[in-house]
Design goal:
The protein is α/β, with parallel strands linked by helices. The protein has 14 helices and 11 strands. Helix 2 packs parallel to helix 3 and helix 5 runs parallel beside helix 13.
Length: 367
C-alpha cells in the first residue's frame, strides 16, 4: 500500500493514524504506517515532552508526527481566565441542571478537571511546538486549517512536512496558497470536526483543486477496501482516527465507553456542537441531545463551549454516567465491534486492500 508520499516519509503503508494515545501512535508507526499524536490535551510542555520521549523509545526508528489545534490568525494577550469570563451565567446554569437531572456527582475536593480543551489557545499550541521541534517528527498536522505562516516556516526549516485538514475544495486551495505540503480531505462521515461534504465527493474535488500536492482521504475508512477506494479517487494516503479507539493499546480509561463504542452502529453518531462549539461528529448521547434541543440555550462558539463543559465532561467520564458518556467518533464506528491490537487492525487493512485490488483487476480483465 505504497504511494510516492509514503515512500518519501519512510512508511511501509500509506496509512496515517491520528490518536491522542502515545501507545497507539507508536504501534501504528511500528506496523508500517505513520502514527500522529494529538497534542490538544497537553496543557503542560513537560507532559508532551515525556510522551514524545516515550515514543522515541517505542517507534523503532519509524516515522511519527504531531497534530495540533491552532488558529491561522494570531491572537495575542488573551488569557484562559478572560475567555472563561465571557461565558453567560445562563449557560452555566444549563450545565448544572443537566448534570443534576442525571445525578452526576461532583469531583472530589482538590481534584481538578482532567478534560480541558485548552490546546486551541495559540500560546498553548506554540508551547507544544517549542517542545515538538526538538524531536525528529516527520509530519505536523493542524486540525484548524493552515497554521500561522511563521509556524509553517519553522517546520519547513526542520524538514517537517505540514498538513492541514480541509472540508471543501475552497479550504484546500487556501491551504495550498499558505504553503501547506499535504491536504487532508476530511469528509462528513469522519469523527471530530467535519464539514458538510462526504468523502466520496470531497476527495476527488480536493485532489483536482490542489494538484500536484498530495491529498489524504479521511472519513468513512475502516477497511482495506475503503482505503483502496480512496486511492482510486486520487488520494496518496488515508487518514484514520476513529478506528484506533477500540484497539487494545488505547487508553480510554472507561470500560463503559469502550462497551458503547463496540455496541454502536454507523447510525449512532451525531454531528453536534455540544463538545467544542464547532460541529463535531460524536456518539449521540443524552448530553448531545440536551445541547441540540431547540428549547435549550444553544451552544457557545469555540472556545467558550469547550471551557464551559470541561468540568462536566470530566465528571461524566470519572463516574461513567452511561446515558451521557460519549466521545468524538466517525460513522465507521459500526465496524468497530471487537478490541484488537493495532497490528491486527493493520493486517486486516492490508488484506482488505489486496482483496479490493484483486476485484478491480478482475473487472478490468487482468485477473
Amino acid at each position: 500500500m505504497e504511494t510516492e508520499l509514503s515512500k518519501q516519509l519512510g512508511m511501509e503503508h500509506a496509512i496515517f493514524g491520528f490518536t491522542p494515545f502515545p501507545a497507539v501512535a507508536a504501534a501504528i508507526s511500528r506496523a508500517g504506517g505513520l502514527g500522529v499524536l494529538g497534542a490538544v490535551r497537553y496543557t503542560a510542555p513537560g507532559e508532551l515532552a515525556r510522551d514524545l520521549d516515550w515514543m522515541q523509545e517505542h517507534t523503532g526508528g519509524r516515522p511519527y508526527g504531531l497534530d495540533v489545534v491552532m488558529p491561522a490568525k494570531k491572537v495575542e494577550g488573551v488569557t484562559e481566565a478572560e475567555v472563561e469570563a465571557m461565558i453567560p451565567e445562563g449557560h452555566r446554569k444549563f450545565v448544572k441542571d443537566t448534570l443534576a437531572k442525571y445525578d452526576v456527582p461532583g469531583l472530589p475536593e482538590g481534584e481538578a478537571s482532567g478534560w480541558r480543551i485548552t490546546g486551541w489557545m495559540e500560546q498553548v499550541a506554540r508551547s507544544q511546538l517549542d517542545v515538538a521541534f526538538d524531536y525528529p517528527i516527520r509530519l505536523l498536522a493542524n486540525a484548524l486549517g493552515s497554521p500561522p505562516p511563521d509556524v509553517v516556516e519553522r517546520a519547513h526549516g526542520r524538514g517537517i512536512r505540514v498538513a492541514a485538514l480541509a472540508g471543501s475544495a475552497r479550504h484546500a486551495r487556501h491551504h495550498a496558497d499558505a504553503g501547506i505540503d499535504i491536504v487532508v480531505a476530511q469528509g462528513y462521515e469522519a469523527g471530530g470536526h467535519t464539514g458538510e461534504i462526504a468523502s466520496m465527493v470531497l476527495t476527488p474535488e480536493v485532489v483536482r483543486a490542489v494538484d500536484p500536492l498530495p491529498v489524504l482521504c479521511a472519513g468513512g475508512i475502516g477497511s482495506g477496501e475503503q482505503a483502496a477506494a480512496a486511492f482510486a479517487l486520487g488520494a496518496q494516503g488515508v487518514w484514520l482516527g476513529s478506528l484506533w479507539l477500540t484497539t487494545t493499546e488505547a487508553e480510554l480509561h472507561s470500560r463503559a465507553l469502550t462497551a458503547k463504542l463496540l455496541a454502536a452502529g454507523s447510525g449512532d453518531t451525531v454531528r453536534s456542537r455540544a463538545l467544542t462549539g464547532k460541529p463535531a461528529r460524536q456518539l449521540r448521547t443524552g448530553w448531545t441531545d440536551a445541547w441540540d434541543d431547540p428549547d435549550g440555550p444553544g451552544t457557545l462558539p469555540m472556545p467558550l463551549q469547550g471551557l464551559l463543559v470541561a468540568d462536566a465532561v470530566s465528571r461524566i467520564q470519572r463516574y461513567e454516567v452511561e446515558p451521557l458518556l460519549g466521545t468524538p467518533v466517525g460513522q465507521i464506528v459500526g465496524r468497530m465491534n471487537s478490541e484488537r491490537p493495532v497490528q491486527e487492525v493493520f493486517d486486516d487493512l492490508t488484506r482488505g486492500f489486496e482483496r479490493a485490488i484483486d476485484r478491480v483487476n478482475r473487472v478490468a480483465g487482468r485477473g
